Amino acid sequence: MKHASDSSEQQTAESYMLEELGRKLSLTLQSSKLKLTTGNSVQIDGLNEEKQVLCEIYARIGKLKSAQSDKVASDFLKMLYVEKNIRLRVG
Predict the structure, then answer these.
(1) Are 44 and 82 in contact (CB under 8 A)?
(2) What is the pLDDT of residues 61-91, one digit of tens each?
(3) Domain, as residue range, for 45
(4) Considering the domain boundaries, does residue 2 fall inside one?
């Protein structure tokens, strides 16, 4: 029996969504850890360095809870922060 916090279905959906988005954009998008000019590192769900595309993927099964809807806003802010502070890829 799966634990209540098991997110394997969401992870599978997010992987599929990333692949499908890449296909629609004719890009290869890969999960990447980026080092920023601030010295911080951040994990990005999808990155194509050549075309300078980054994305965050979010999948949810069922109704959103308030903290989950906040995640969409925080992902958006994260992407803006990365755009302003990107330096180089670290892994």
Answers:
(1) yes
(2) 778 777 777 888 889 899 899 988 876 444 4
(3) 8-89
(4) no
Name which of 76, 60, 70 is nearest 13 in CA terms.
Answer: 60
pLDDT tens digits for 42-63?
A: 999 999 988 889 999 888 777 8
Nearest to 14 by CA among 61, 48, 76: 61
Decide if 81 is inside a domain. yes
Q: Which pair of structure tokens corresponds to residue 52?
A: 């300078």
Return d(Cα 70, Cα 59) in angstroms, integer.
14
The tokens of 25 are what?
A: 């954009």
**pTM above the 0.85 mark?**
no
